[in-house]
Amino acid sequence: MRSVVFVERLELDFEGNLFANGLMLGDVDNDGENELVVGNTEGQLYVFKGDSTSPWAVASNLGITTCVGIGDVCNKGRNFIITVSAEGLCHIFDLETVKKSKEVEAKGQKDARNKTESKGSKDVKGQKDVKGQKDANQKGQKEPKASRDGSKLQPDGKSQPETKGQAEGKVQSEVKGQCKPFELYPCHTQHLPANTKMLLIQDIDGGGKVELVVGHTDRTVRAYTWRDAPPKNDGRSLLGGKFVLLQKWNLQGQVGSLSLSRHADGSPKLVVSQPGCNYSELLCNWVKGQEVGTGGAANQSDEAYIKWHPISSRRARNSNVSTEIVADIRLGEVTSKDNQECRPHLDRLALCTLDGTLMMIEDDKILWSLLVDHQLFAVTKLDINCDGRDEVVFCAWDGQTYIVDHGQEVVRFQLEENAAAFTAGQYNAKGQNMPCLVYVTFTKQIYVYWNVCLPRIESASLHDLLESNDEVQEQLKLLDLNGCTAKDMRQLVQWCIYGNHSKPAEEKR
């Protein structure tokens, strides 16, 4: 296991405390560039954009925010921000209105700048008129009280209008005022059951519409769908519609995290982590044929729509330890050995526990399992090699981060502080979306490590790198050394690095 160091990072301004699910990466304003959304326990919401260390947009009075989400939760064809508080207060923000207000404000500033330039040209003309009036006064005429442009005159006859430079400075100060964060206001507010812990925005039934899945601390999970309706005139909802409950699941163990997996046929599979490095599959009662029971009254109970998946592991040290899960880990196209055709792979899931167990499974079979001496509290997926294959990223409370690929190759990164929350994904810091790691510390700091793309996860020897380097192979071919063995290559490399390269005495003469 090798260690890596990431140095390119942003330190964002942040206040308050937050829960582990209180941050999210996503495209909030539908411009193709991902932003960072953070909600704290004081009811404040921060949206960070680009490489600015200050928030781009803020909201307040949202309650004790426990989780935030980004997605087309209202099925409108664009992304929204959704926050849910511990009290069950749900807020939806539509940043399309913010973009429109920015365009209007920018147009107003442009008009003000043009007006100022036009006024400056009139002031120059007025000064010429004043000079002519002064010459006339010297000939015996009375001194006028004002120039043609209406500006007051001094006793010497000179006017003091607002100069062009002063006007431009005023406009620039107004433009600088635009750097202040925009105040966001929810377009919809609705009360949901309290004790919310996490949320998931996905199409869980394959019907083409996105549902909202909410997990609670009382071991229940609820699924909602958005139903359009005329907007109410209560001043609280500008978006017509509301969330309607679809189904409620009661689980035996504490809910760790929610994720959406896939069956072999590509249909969605909603999974929830359960204590002891296990998980359950939640079936939808409004989808025909999705019940576990065999008939009768059992099909009407909650257990009929909960499929238990016990993952036996001898390395599990505590059957009641909290567990986190992430699904739909991309493996890329897998080539079949029989017909050499590309075939879709079975979905892979990764789990981690608070006692330090890391695991990847496929079709309920353990592909690999690791054991570390750190308390893992977060797991996510990230294509850190930028090759179309997802790696799994685990984070511990002490800031130790493990990046593991499908072949169980591991690299680790150590944050210098303890982590209160963690996520990984794509963030636009320098003009394009790049892989990044986001940490929130207990000292109220947000660190965004952007551009963390690694060339490889596995360790590679110098001999392997030379064999895969086309330029090196071309030079060896020119020297007629392309057919040398591995032993000869080692001797050649040793001579190139440590050998005596001085010319023989006969050549020097």
Please tag this protein with its features:
509 residues, alpha+beta, five-stranded mixed sheet, 6 helices, 18% helix
In helices, the fraction of residues equals 10-25%
Mean pLDDT, all residues: 82
User: What portion of residues belong to β-strands?
Assistant: 25-35%
Euclidean distance between termini CA atoms: 53 Å
Radius of gyration: 32 Å
Shape: globular
* Coarse structural class: alpha+beta
Low confidence ranges: 141-178, 294-299, 335-343
Describe the largest sheet.
5 strands, mixed
State the total count of DSSP E strands.
Answer: 32
Summarize the helices and strands and which ones pair or pack:
Elements: E1 2-3, E2 9-12, E3 23-26, E4 35-39, E5 45-48, E6 57-59, E7 65-71, E8 80-85, E9 89-93, H1 96-138, H2 164-177, E10 182-183, E11 188-191, E12 196-202, E13 211-216, E14 220-227, E15 242-250, E16 258-262, E17 268-274, E18 278-282, E19 306-309, E20 323-326, E21 334-335, E22 342-343, E23 348-353, E24 357-362, E25 365-371, E26 376-382, E27 391-396, E28 400-404, E29 410-414, E30 419-428, E31 433-441, E32 446-450, H3 462-468, H4 470-478, H5 486-498, H6 505-508
Parallel strand pairs: 1-29, 6-10
Antiparallel strand pairs: 2-32, 3-4, 4-5, 5-6, 7-8, 8-9, 9-11, 12-13, 13-14, 14-15, 16-17, 17-18, 18-19, 20-23, 21-22, 23-24, 24-25, 26-27, 27-28, 28-29, 30-31, 31-32
